[in-house]
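Entry 12.
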Amino acid sequence: MSKEVFIPHNNNELYEKMINEHFPGELSLENVWMVWKLPNGITVKVSFDPLHPETYLITYYGEGKREFPLAHWHPYIEDVYRDLSDIASGKIFWVKRKRKMIHLIFPDLPIIMFRDEWEKFSEKKKRKYIFI
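Predicted 3D structure (tokens):
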């Protein structure tokens, strides 16, 4: 028996599902965005395109005027909830290098990491990072 996949068709449906599933952090609806502020300083914004079967998902680090874009992708509507669930469950997470890199313009920004990719790292390589 297969588990039914939740497919949201707009930000309101996605927001309600995430609220009902008790996703960590703060959720809000802002204009065309469903905004998810994670406890680690990462913000995830999702927007649906009514003309295409995909969404726009972008991640930021920081707050307010010091908000830096990290990564974005375009999951299809049938995949966006799974991607967000993977973040909530820790299958997708962010790390920072322990040794601070010198940046003239940007701060030391987190790197998005997938659990299966992380598991392939040697212990020596893993020790170079901290989880945020």
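Annotation: Residues 77-89 form the longest helix (13 residues). The mean pLDDT is 90.
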